[in-house]
Write a structure and sequence with these properties.
By secondary structure, the chain is α/β, with parallel strands linked by helices. It has one domain: TIM Barrel, CATH 3.20.20.30. The chain is built from 10 helices and 12 strands. An 8-stranded parallel β-barrel has the order 1-2-3-5-8-9-10-12, surrounded by 8 helices. A two-stranded antiparallel ribbon has the order 6-7. It is globular, with a radius of gyration of 19 Å. The two termini are 13 Å apart.
Amino acid sequence: MRFGAQPWSQATDWPGLRDVALHAERAGWDAVYTWDHLMAIQGPWRQPIFEGWAVLAAWAALTSRIRIGLMVGANTFRNPGHTAKLAATLDHISNGRAILAIGGAWFEREHEAHGIDFGASVGERLDRLDEAVMLMRRLLDGETIDHAGRFYTFKDTVHAPLPIQAHLPILIGGSGPKKTLRTAAAYADAWNTSGTPDEFAARDAILVGHCADVGRDPALIERTVSFPIIIRDDPADADRALGALLDHNHIDTLGDIPNLLGSPAAIAERLRPYRDLGMVEVVVRLPAPFDAETIERIGEVRDALDALP
């Protein structure tokens, strides 16, 4: 199983956010992701936060091996042609390590603050996402596009240079059964969700059903899952580390999802059901100030998981 680090871009400074990507690469992580938000989404929204694509460009220039992407981009922020151009440029800066991760967007406050159209409903935003991802895929694949759709209009549009990767991967984030998972079935190379093993299994069955409807092999879509993880041999030490992170970000919890705290062996046992259900990557949520022991010891979790039948 691969492991991706997701350092929160809020409540930190640039040296901290810069160095966590370098540390993750040295420690053997497979990918590093950050948010796409204009305001802090955990705790008070007035906390400092950095812009996502600019962070990715800096990480891409500073690293040499680790894959790089958002988790996930807000489709409402940009025209899909702009997003595709950003992803292709990132692929060149990183020498072929970019991931285009995208979702429908959900944080209304930052849209209201910046005068960005939030759409009339969740359904409308997800319809917009579906049309946008279709256009991104075509642009990244080198097509020339004439398109007059419900949300977007393109006229004789073609992008150069193309990405370094022959097929730059698109990851869809979200679990909406009717629309998000259908978009993932049609276009995604990877899908990110969270929740318990039973919740994942239920959502995955819906994704497989959508794949049948659109005539796509579900094996073409990598399954990824997102959790907070804190590695300590003593669970009490993990709880104390969690408390310090919560205090720093002015929050009471890391969310109503599994929080994996404890030894590498204990965390591997928690991850085994997901592996057995077909998960290929764990995206680890890392609030600032980024926990150095967890970053350094993730290889122990991988080894413990590999040792489990």
